[in-house]
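Hey, I was hoping to borrow your eyes for a little while. I'm sending you its amino acid sequence along with the backbone structure tokens. Take your time with it, there's no hurry, and the full record follows here.
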Amino acid sequence: MGVSGCGKSTIGVALAQHWDLPFLDADDYHPASNVDKMSKAIPLTDEDRWPWLQSLSQAMVAAADQAGGVVATCSALKRKYREYILQQVDRPLLFVFLEGDRETLFARMQQRSDHYMPPSLLDSQLADLERPHADEPAATFSVDKPVGELVEEIVGRLDARQQN
């Protein structure tokens, strides 16, 4: 989870490969109307996000039922979105929060040429972002290191959690 540009897809794919699980990118579950709004630099509202979160949650359940688990990316910016996903998925779930400073995230977004989310929407995402609280099933990681190192750190912490 995290705002656009934090590396959710890159890290998610690597984690799914590590654990040999299916990977779902929440971007693939947005209705066309959401993609259209974002591509026009119009921030999404809560009302825009609920059908998207529902579709993603349903896909997560189906993938987890079939493969025994799933790695999915989702901005999950607000606590109520994370609570909704937890309720809908109704299986053990951990949010991996990828956080970075605005300058790093903005620079990453500017380098992407194949994404509908323009860098101009970063500030609206940062404004909506509610960092996970201690009572949520979440682990926070900084994106200020190379992808391989970050994936190793995440895998190490999550594998250790599984053993406890």
Remarks:
- The radius of gyration is 15 Å.
- The first strand starts at residue 23 and ends at 25.
- The mean pLDDT is 90.
